[in-house]
Design a protein that fits this description.
elongated
Length: 1920
């Protein structure tokens, strides 16, 4: 029984006490005065009566009522029902208020000037029970008695209220005798009557209709958010203008959380004065009046629910974990069916008649039932995860969270994790954990109805039926007797409410009278016998075990039965000592152990092989068992949710092997590397589980002694015996506990405690086993986990400081070694101490026992360390496990090992090929060694998978190409150890992920990294392999030995000295290394000087020295300079000569200038430059300052036909004052300097223009207005003028935007020309009526349409119609053509003015920045060689390739190049002037020459092109390749590789135009990055001279093995073998190539994707030849008796396809060489043989009409020399028949032969299949006609492809006269001559062809030819 009301309080306005202008409330009276013992009076009631503050108001307000909830210090809730009404103040009281207000200076007096004011007064009932309606009625009654002046004294009413006693809860099934208990009728003595119904079970919350109201106010989704937020401990704030609604909402939220109880701050109504509570860090549920909304705005982590507006606001920083699917969806569906039943039928044509939702009170219970159903599903089976660790004196229960989550497969679920970790769930376990207690609705639901819930969950209607049943129970609990007539309570009369005057203030009550009532009731209670409600305790049912209800998304692996079989077999083999069988199964077992069932199976199987806690194994068995254990543990999370680690724990201390005398090594020393062992929660769960088992055993024994055995095994429903669970046992013990004697009770308590204590000692041992590493000096495990860190491991509390003090005393300051080991020991001791503290405190171990444990732990650890040391020593002596022997790599001549092989594992990366996923065996992971040489990093080993076979895996890359090195930790599948590893990425598109074997010490691995870094980034370029090769591996910079080639060294030194000396002068003296005749120019020079605006100083005569003074070495220099690539090419192009006489015709437009021979003008340019004839050297010094890096415009190529020239330079300096200060010696008068420079620059450009023949022909003006660098831009107005001039090509390059910034316009005389159409230049020789050049061949060449036909018409010399209807006059258009186009950077050309008279035009383009290239390349590498496999769709190869934008960059470069080719071909010169002139400029200029000039598409030409444009013109190879320590930070930028990729794209489109093959390009690409040769080192010729490497290539003959130049190497190799040659090479004369540049036409270069694991990259040929010779030797040593198979399996990504499957021509050439060698003839060079075949073929085609008698190998071709079919043919005598072999190989791209077409350009457009394509054998045969018809000669063609024999009238005939299907042929026999047969033909030349339809009589010209025909037809038949 409980009091209905504990206290009655009257609270009023405090007139005497106002703080800061705010009114206060004070308690006027309270009853009883003294506190009840069991329920102290709560503080602060006056604040809660008026939560918004105490205020006086001018009008009387309606009485209000609400219930506030106060929580005391013991977490007990007090319900304060506040009834507030308003009383008028009389005059003396008002004066008090006025006086008080007058004191307030800032108060406005006007506010209180009313004649009447009203003050609030509250009547408060304080109770521990929540009966809102009863309180409302009682307080209303008291108010009515007061207002209406009823006869009953107030003291009586209040006395009755305070002495009213009601039952706390009714019985479970209310019978007639219990009706009194659950129904209590009360009266307060004023003629009133109320019935209070107490709930049947007070454990269930009473909600009235508050839950339904909450859902109506906020909606389903919002309430679910709040529900999840409350469970996951977030802060929740309700806002409403109604206090009662706030209370109801909070009550409703708590009701739906049942069975969890909210244990944080809970304040449904928070007074305004206490708003700072909202900034508390702990979670809360609080309600606040909307009046204070503004104060809640700045709360950042509070979820605000506005009840009036129906919104829930969740701050950005708050993440609410929602219910796991499908629960969330099902809950929402169920709720919507309760709240909105019409929704389901709203679309039906005939909806049911009555679909109204239930009454509010019923609906309330239905919603709660949904949440009960939800919790039953969330917590189903929770009782099976409870560990009971003590039964007496009180049950102590712990929940095994990991097991619960694991069995539900919800370990990843955020929501459930947070709920289980929360305080509410901890309360749930402590309240509902005990096995013997009263049960309620939820216990029944979670135990007995799980099966029903599971079956119905998919069917909403069945769920609803269940919900309704539950709702009924909930409603019955709250309203046991709904039919009972309720209340009779008086309300105040209307008149008393309306009249103000008649009211008297609420009287002061008589204390004594009320107290008498209370005392009387207390005395009566004492005298009556106590009402003891017998609590019905029973055993709590556990429900079905979790194992049966695994979630349906618990992933069971496919074929699990088969996998388990494999695991079982393997273990059986191991214990039967069948090691070979076990070894075979091992990889499959390790794969199977990824699945949970297989891991469980492994632990069960191993358990069977343990006898008396011990299983001694031999070394190999031990190794296998440990490997399997490691694999099993590797996939266990630190929580060990599946209990795998738990079941393995006893096994690791059971399996062992003998090491030596008395020394045994247990498995635990080999399985320590797993996080699970360092997780405190894991050890706690393990400990509790073991304690539970022991305590269970303890009571089982006592029961056995006392009772029959049937008590221990209960019969379950099916009659099977089931073992009794620990909880059931505990329940039974708890039931018996009160019946035991005191002695028995203490005995049981002691027994239990000693059980826990002994287990604690046992676990201290176990933990030391698994935490102390075998080598205690290493401390691996502890370092990697948070073991040393007290807080990080467990969220438990450490209760005792003994642990700390013991650990401190243990730390000895001995020698270094001991300090190390003691450090390990200390952290282990600390960890175990914390564990022991926690578990012993929780399981109630006495302090004495705990202290004893603390003293034991350090001894246990120390003892274990000593045993481990012995084991460690012995285990080192073990013979190592047989690992594959390390294979030595083959090295290049001059390559030496820096670090010998370290054993490593090569781990697969993101490429699928080697892992066997693309077909072929899994070559990776592989085990072997890594070798560091002076040149490469090499891995060589064998696949780890024993079933792959004896393949050798090699992966290597040059050290110089290493771009990124990253440490990784790798878990190897075989040994399961986490290994240190490295991921090394190379820009040769190679990736090595290696894990060091455990035998490799970590310092060795570190030293490997340092060496690698040192070799990758040497201090100086002379430290690279190309320089150190052959210098005995020491990384010396330069040995101080005397050099044989003395003159060379002195020459280079002199050059450099002179350069340095003269570089500071304003004008460099001409110290020429040329004969004196050179000086005869000086008078000519001065003539020139006069007519220019001469700012240059006079030539210093003293600086001119005669040639007689030149030393011999300097002369040699000059001749060397002349021999350089540039000079050879200038002479070839006729751009100037350097003859001895040096007489030069003045009409040559260009000359070779030696102004830069000392590299003083521009360091990065070559020594000799081509400049216009009439520009003196002195001008150059001034011009070069306008350009970045002094790279002024020079001519690099001239078009042979149009004589247009191609120039290159850097971009212009951004002119400004700053740049003048930068110039070497700025004179004082800045303006004149600027003017003169710009004028000279303009003069320079004019000189270039006037040197063009087209210029001198035209009548254009020669005067130019000033072209200064500031004029390099246009105003916006002229943008549109220039756009269409260069046609659509230009549009594409400029991006086709209207607003191209900074473009130039050149309208003639102010007219706006819209189009340029170039008239055809006159060409001597053949008339060229077709457009010159050809477009790339694309199959299905619909792509052509993407180019505007305007280009075609323009190239053909036809005028395009003008869009604006302007004049179409050729002369007008002719004037519009610019003589010089300058390709400039768009960003550079801003803000200048353009003069309309100028004859040059600037094309602004956007160039790709070097940074862009660098980033794009990084992304390209990651796309082509990903570091790990991924299944994300946006990480696919094509997506990553697109993101890298590499193809876009290629497209841009090619597009600009094609534009320049176009301009040059139409007779305009072009100057490429981009960035610093050494990156994009070089790419464009080189590609333009390659496309325009066929010479550069030969071996010599391409070499010359690269030497001239890339090496001599100073592309910064060292800097861009990050080759030294200095350039390390700039990173690798593959500008040259990008150029080679562009060449590759062109090569693909024009396979017949290049003498070299694709392999040649890959070879250059690889060695450009490899630093094997010196060719691509250093940044310019100047640097090369400084190091003395420019001219040494020819003169170094000391070490013929070591090639210093890549070109020499290629030449040597090309002489030996046709690897670089393109067999399809058959160029057309002066062919200009115009490739397609769209991204869709570009292909990813296979250089980026190829890999050869058999012998590494195929670009170091010496290695290939050595490996082949080694392979032959081993083959000879092998047993010769065995039959050799001719078959060879070719594996993807393993074999080198070009080597294993060479193309036909290479094969034939090799066979020819072999035959010659066998015959003892001196073998011809392959090139000679090839050329012979070609020439023979040419003569053959000319003599086509006559039969040829030669029978040598021929190239077949019909019209233009060997262009067509590129096959190898066997030519037969006299008859021009040929057998062709198709080619397909790396050295020659595939070509489809096309027969006699007149125009070769069409070859590239469409490859359509014609009959003539498929001629396998052809020639003339005589055929006998049908009956009585004569014999006639016919041209027969045997077509193996179509499987037919066709015949034509003649060879030229295109129409087939007849076809003989070979499928119909029955026989081919020798025939006999018949009537009318041709004369003079021998008899054997006849043969017959019998088909199913008729017989054909045929006759060849001679018998051998007939035989050949018969054989060919026969072979075709057999092939089919």
């Amino acid at each position: 029984m409980a009091r209905l009301a504990n206290y009655f309080v009257v609270v009023g306005y405090d007139l005497d006490n106002r703080v800061e202008g705010e009114g206060q409330g004070r308690i006027l009276q309270r009853f009883p005065e003294k506190d009840w013992e069991d329920s102290p009076f709560p503080q602060g009631i006056e604040l809660f009566c008026q939560p918004s503050g105490w205020q006086l108001v001018p009008e009387r307000q309606a009485a209000s009522f609400f219930v506030a909830v106060l929580t005391d210090i013991n977490s007990e809730r007090h319900y304060c029902a506040c009834f507030t009404f308003w009383e008028g103040l009389d005059s003396p009281q008002l004066k008090k208020v006025d006086a008080g207000d007058a004191d307030e200076a800032d108060e406005e007096p006007a506010v209180v000037q009313h004649s009447k004011l009203f003050a609030p007064k509250s009547l408060v009932v304080v109770s521990r029970l929540d009966y809102t309606e009863a309180f409302r009625n009682c307080l209303g009654l008291i108010y009515t008695v007061h207002v209406d002046g009823l006869s009953t004294p107030l003291e009586t009413v209040i006395g009755n209220l305070l002495t009213c006693v009601i039952p706390v809860a009714g019985g479970s099934q209310p019978g007639p005798e219990e009706r009194e208990d659950s129904l209590r009728t009360i009266t307060l003595g004023a003629g009133d009557r109320q019935v209070i119904q107490t709930p049947i079970n007070d454990a269930l919350p009473v909600s009235g209709s508050s839950v339904a109201q909450l859902f109506r106010q906020l909606g389903i989704v919002n309430v679910l958010y709040l529900f999840c937020a409350a469970l996951t401990e977030h802060k929740i704030l309700f806002l409403s203008s109604s206090y009662q609604r706030l209370t109801d909402a909070c009550r409703g939220l708590l009701a739906i959380m049942f069975p969890l109880k909210y244990s944080f701050t809970y304040v449904p109504i928070l007074p305004g004065k206490l708003l700072e509570v909202l900034s508390t860090p702990t979670p809360f549920i609080i309600g606040v009046n909307s009046f204070f909304r503004s104060e809640t705005q700045e709360l950042l982590d509070v979820i605000i629910a506005d009840l009036d507006g129906g919104t829930v606001t969740i701050p950005e920083c708050v993440h609410i974990s929602l219910l796991p699917e499908p629960l969330l969806q099902q809950t929402q569906t169920a709720l919507s069916m309760v709240l909105d039943p019409e929704l389901e039928f709203s679309d039906q044509a005939f909806p049911p008649q009555s679909m109204n939702p239930s009454a509010l009170k019923i609906q309330d219970k239905e919603i709660r039932a949904v949440f009960l159903w939800l919790f039953a599903r969330l917590f189903q089976g929770y009782r099976w995860c409870l560990h009971i660790i003590r039964i007496h004196p009180e049950p102590v229960i712990r929940f095994h969270k990991a097991a619960f989550l694991g069995q539900r497969s919800l370990t990843e679920d955020d929501f459930l994790m947070k709920v289980l970790d929360g305080m509410a769930f901890a309360g749930f376990v402590s309240e509902r954990g005990p096995p013997y207690r009263a049960t309620d609705l939820f216990d029944d639901l979670v135990a007995n109805q799980v099966e029903r819930i599971r079956q119905e969950e998919a069917c909403p209607h069945k769920v609803m039926n269940h919900v309704k049943e539950l709702a009924e129970q909930l409603f019955k609990n709250e309203n046991p007797y709904p039919a009972v007539a309720m209340h009779k309570v008086q309300r105040p009369s209307e008149t008393s409410q309306s009249t103000d005057q008649s009211r008297t203030p609420f009287p002061v009550l008589d204390d004594v009278a009320v107290q008498l009532f209370i005392d009387h009731a207390v005395a009566k209670l004492k005298s009556s016998p106590p009402v003891v409600k017998a609590e019905l305790k029973s055993m709590v049912p556990s429900g079905p075990p979790l194992g049966d209800i695994v979630d349906r998304n618990g992933n069971v692996m496919a074929n699990s039965a088969r996998r388990l079989e494999v695991v079982r077999n393997c273990i059986t083999y191991i214990f039967d000592n069948k090691m070979l069988e076990a070894k075979k199964l091992m990889p499959a077992v390790l794969r199977a152990l990824k699945g949970r069932t297989a891991r469980v199976c492994l632990t069960q199987e191993l358990n069977q092989h343990v006898l008396q806690n011990r299983a001694v194994l031999d070394d190999q068995q031990f190794d296998y068992i440990v490997r399997m254990m490691n694999c099993t543990l590797q996939d266990c999370s630190h929580m060990d949710e599946h209990g795998i680690a738990a079941t393995l724990l006893p096994l690791v201390t059971a399996f062992c092997r003998k090491l030596g005398a008395g020394i045994t090594q247990f498995a635990y020393s080999c399985v320590q590397e797993h996080m699970v062992w360092t997780t405190m929660q894991f050890w706690e769960a393990m400990f509790y589980s073991d304690v539970q088992n022991h305590i269970k055993a303890l009571y089982m024994e006592t029961d056995d002694g006392n009772q029959q055995s049937n008590s221990q095994d209960q019969q379950d429903g099916s009659g099977n015996r089931r073992e009794i669970s620990a909880l059931e046992l505990a329940a039974e013990q708890n039931r018996l506990w009160p019946t035991l004697s005191k002695e028995m009770q203490t005995e049981r308590v002691q027994k239990e405690e000693s059980t826990v204590f002994s287990q604690a000692i046992h676990y201290a041992n176990r933990m030391s086993y698994l935490l102390l590493p075998l080598d205690t000096s290493k401390n691996r495990l502890l370092r990697s986990s948070g073991l040393g860190d007290v807080e990080s491991v467990s969220n438990s509390y450490v209760t005792n400081s003994i642990a700390g003090s013991m650990a401190e005393s243990y730390d000895t300051e001995s020698g270094f070694e001991d300090a190390e080991s003691s450090d390990v020991a200390n952290s282990v001791v600390r960890f175990i101490n914390r564990f022991v503290d926690k578990v012993c405190n929780e399981s109630g171990v006495t302090n004495e026992h705990l202290k004893a444990l603390h003293t034991m732990i350090p001894d246990i650890v120390q003892m274990h360390i000593e045993t481990l040391d012995a084991v460690h020593r012995e285990s080192k002596r073990l013979p190592p496990i047989q690992k594959p022997k390390l294979l030595r790599p083959t090295l290049l001549p001059g390559e030496e090992l820096v670090m010998d092989g370290m054993r490593v594992h090569l781990i697969p990366d993101g490429r699928d090929e080697a892992t066997g996923q693309m077909g072929g065996p899994p070559l990776l992971p592989a085990e072997g060694a890594i070798f560091l040489t002076t040149y490469r990093l090499i891995f060589k080993g064998t696949p780890s998978d024993a079933l792959v076979g004896e393949q050798i895996v090699t992966r290597s890359f040059p050290i110089a190409s290493l771009t990124k090195e990253k440490r990784i930790s790798v878990t190897l599948t075989m040994d399961q150890f986490v290994q240190e590893g490295l991921q090394l990425r190379s820009c040769t598109f190679q990736l090595m992920k290696i894990a060091f074997d455990e035998e490799v010490a970590s310092d060795l691995a570190e030293s490997f990294r340092k060496h690698l870094h040192k070799l990758r980034f040497p201090q100086h370029v002379q430290g690279t392999f190309a320089f150190t090769v052959g210098q005995t591996g020491k990384l010396v910079l330069e040995p101080k030995t005397k050099d044989k080639n003395q003159s060379l060294k002195t020459l280079s030194k002199n050059l450099v000295k002179n350069a340095k000396r003269t570089i500071s002068r304003q004008y460099v003296g001409r110290k020429k290394e040329v004969p004196a005749t050179w000086e005869n120019r000086s008078n000519f020079q001065s003539e020139l000087d006069e007519d220019e605006i001469s700012v240059s100083e006079e030539v210093d005569q003293s600086a001119l020295t005669l040639s007689s003074t030149i030393r011999s070495s300097d002369r040699q220099t000059m001749s060397n300079v002349v021999e350089r690539a540039c000079c050879r090419d200038y002479q070839r192009l006729g751009l100037g000569t350097l003859s001895n006489s040096l007489t030069r015709s003045k009409n040559e437009p260009f000359r070779i200038s030696t102004a830069n021979r000392m590299y003083t003008v521009c360091r990065s340019y070559p020594g000799l430059l081509i400049i216009p004839q009439n520009i003196p050297d002195s001008t150059i010094h001034r011009i070069c300052r306008c350009y970045r890096q002094n790279r002024f415009p020079v001519v690099c190529w001239r078009h042979s036909r149009t004589k247009a020239v191609l120039l290159r330079s850097a971009g212009l300096h951004a002119k400004g004052v700053v740049s003048f200060f930068k110039s070497p010696n700025a004179p004082t008068a800045v303006p004149s300097q600027a003017d003169s420079t710009s004028l000279e620059q303009e003069k320079y450009l004019q000189a270039i223009i006037s040197s063009m023949p087209s210029y001198s022909e035209s009548t254009g003006r020669n005067t130019l207005s000033g072209f200064t660098s500031t004029h390099m831009n246009t105003s916006e107005s002229s943008d549109k003028l220039r756009q269409p001039k260069i046609g659509d090509l230009m549009k594409q390059v400029l991006g086709n935007k209207e607003d191209v910034p900074g473009t130039f316009s050149r309208g003639a005389l102010g007219q706006k020309a819209k189009v340029i159409s170039l008239s055809q230049p006159k060409v001597s020789g053949k008339a060229r009526n077709s457009p010159r050049g050809k477009w790339g061949s694309i199959r299905g060449s619909g792509r052509l349409s993407a180019y505007n036909p305007d280009i075609g018409t323009r190239l053909a010399g036809k005028e395009s119609p003008q869009p604006n209807g302007g004049p179409n006059d050729p002369l007008f258009l002719r004037q519009q053509k610019a003589y010089l186009y300058i390709i400039g950077d768009k960003a550079q050309l801003k803000g200048g003015k353009q003069d309309s008279f100028q004859q040059w035009e600037v094309i602004p383009i956007e160039v790709c920045d070097v940074r862009q290239v660098k980033n794009s390349f990084k992304k390209l590498m990651k796309a082509c060689v990903p570091s790990s496999q991924t299944t994300e769709p946006n990480m696919s190869f094509l997506r990553l390739l697109e993101d890298s934008e590499w193809m876009t960059l290629l497209h841009r470069v090619l597009q600009v190049s094609v534009l320049v080719v176009e301009l040059l071909d139409t007779g305009s010169s072009v100057m490429v002037s981009l960035e610093d002139g050494w990156d994009v400029t070089t790419q464009v200029v080189s590609l333009v020459q390659l496309l325009s000039d066929p010479y550069y598409r030969t071996f010599d030409g391409f070499r010359l092109l690269v030497e001239k444009e890339w090496l001599s013109f100073g592309h910064r190879f060292s800097h861009r390749g990050a080759q030294t320590l200095g350039s390390q930070s700039s990173g690798f930028t593959p500008v040259f590789l990008q150029f080679l990729d562009c060449v590759h794209q062109i090569h693909l489109q024009f396979p017949m135009e290049f003498e070299f093959s694709q392999y040649y390009l890959k070879f250059l690409a690889y060695h450009y990055m490899s630093n094997r040769f010196r060719t691509f080192l250093l940044d310019s010729d100047y640097d090369r001279i400084e190091l003395g490497v420019l001219y040494e290539e020819k003169s170094d003959r000391r070490n013929p093995q070591v090639c210093k130049s890549v070109w020499d190497y290629i030449d040597r190799l090309n002489k030996k073998a046709p690897v670089f040659y393109n067999y399809m090479y058959s160029p057309e004369d002066e062919e200009v190539l115009r490739p397609y540049t769209f991204i869709s036409n570009l292909k990813v270069w296979d250089f980026y994707l190829e890999e050869t694991l058999s012998d590494g990259p195929p670009y170091d040929w010496e290695l290939r030849s050595r490996q082949e010779s080694l392979a032959e030797e081993t083959a000879e040593k092998a047993d010769t008796g065995a039959p050799k198979s001719q078959r060879h399996i070719v594996w993807p990504c393993y074999d080198n396809l070009s080597k294993v499957m060479p193309d036909a021509i290479t094969k034939l050439l090799q066979d020819l060489q072999n035959l010659e060698a066998e015959l003892g003839q001196t073998s011809e060079k392959w090139k000679d043989t090839w050329d012979k075949i070609k020439t023979t073929q040419r003569t053959e085609t000319k003599l086509e009409s006559k039969p040829s008698f030669s029978s040598s190998l021929l190239m077949s071709s019909n019209l233009s020399h060997q262009r067509r079919s590129q096959g190898v043919c066997l030519q037969d005598s006299r008859v021009g028949s040929s057998i062709k072999l198709g080619l397909d190989c790396e050295a020659s791209a595939t070509s489809t032969p096309v027969a006699g077409r007149p125009s070769t350009s069409t070859l590239y457009s469409q490859f359509q299949s014609t009959e003539s394509e498929n001629r396998s054998f052809e020639g003339i045969l005589y055929k006998r006609g049908a009956l009585l018809k004569p014999w006639k000669p016919r041209w027969f063609v045997l077509d193996k492809t179509k499987h037919e024999l066709r015949y034509y009238d003649s060879r030229q005939d295109k129409d087939c006269k007849g076809v003989i299907e070979l499928s119909d042929v029955e026989s081919v026999t020798v025939g006999t001559p018949t009537m009318g047969a041709p004369k003079n033909v021998e008899e054997k030349a006849f043969f017959d062809l019998k088909t199913s339809k008729r017989m054909y009589n045929l006759c060849a010209q001679e018998s051998s030819n007939a035989q050949l025909w018969m054989d060919s037809i026969q072979s075709s038949l057999s092939d089919a």
